[in-house]
UniProtKB/TrEMBL annotation:
Protein name from the UniProt record: Type II secretion system protein M
The species this protein was found in: Sphingomonas colocasiae
Family membership: Belongs to the GSP M family.
Gene3D superfamilies: General secretion pathway protein M, EpsM
Pfam families in alphabetical order: T2SSM
Subcellular location: Cell inner membrane
Spans through the membrane: 20-39
Matching InterPro entries: T2SS_GspM, T2SS_M_periplasmic_sf
């Protein structure tokens, strides 16, 4: 094989040999450029995947911390039935409950006709700290930038 190549190479004129060497050099440059470009793309993809993984890890750590905080509060007992706790808390914050339907000692269905989103979700956080959690929650936007809320709240520790 190499002998056939040497014969073929010697049959070329000096000009053809130079042109072939230039062509091989240019091909090497193009192949190297494609390789570098491919590695650069792979590196940027890896960096992007890494940054997404870091964000997801932080989110998971935050959720784990929230679950641990909930577990620490698991031993807390409510001082009254859930409907009383929710009603008193709503009055303290200034929400008017348009409907309150107790379903046993540990569950209540409530409705609020109009509540500002920030205030409502802040109130939900306060209730969770007291041991009352939304089991089902439906929020619909009103025309005046408030929410209409229907929720089933469940107490823990009763």
């Amino acid at each position: 094989m190499s002998e056939r190549f040497r014969t073929w190479w010697r049959d070329r004129s000096q000009r053809e040999q130079r042109l072939l060497l230039v062509m091989i050099a240019l091909m090497a440059v193009v192949i190297a450029w494609f390789f570098v470009r491919m590695m650069d793309d792979a590196l940027s993809d890896a960096r992007e995947r890494h940054s997404r993984a870091v964000v997801e890890q932080a989110e998971v750590k935050g959720k784990v911390a929230a679950l641990k905080a909930l577990e620490r509060g698991a031993g807390r007992r409510l001082e009254a039935p859930v409907d009383v706790v929710v009603g008193q808390s709503a009055n303290e914050v200034g929400f008017v409950l348009s409907r309150t339907e107790p379903q046993g000692r540990d569950r209540v269905v409530i409705a609020i006709a109009s509540a500002r989103p920030q205030a409502f979700f802040g109130w939900l956080n306060d209730l969770e700290a007291r041991g009352v959690f939304p089991e089902r929650l439906t929020a619909r936007a009103n025309s005046d930038q408030t929410l209409s809320i229907e929720a089933t709240m469940r107490g823990r520790g009763l």
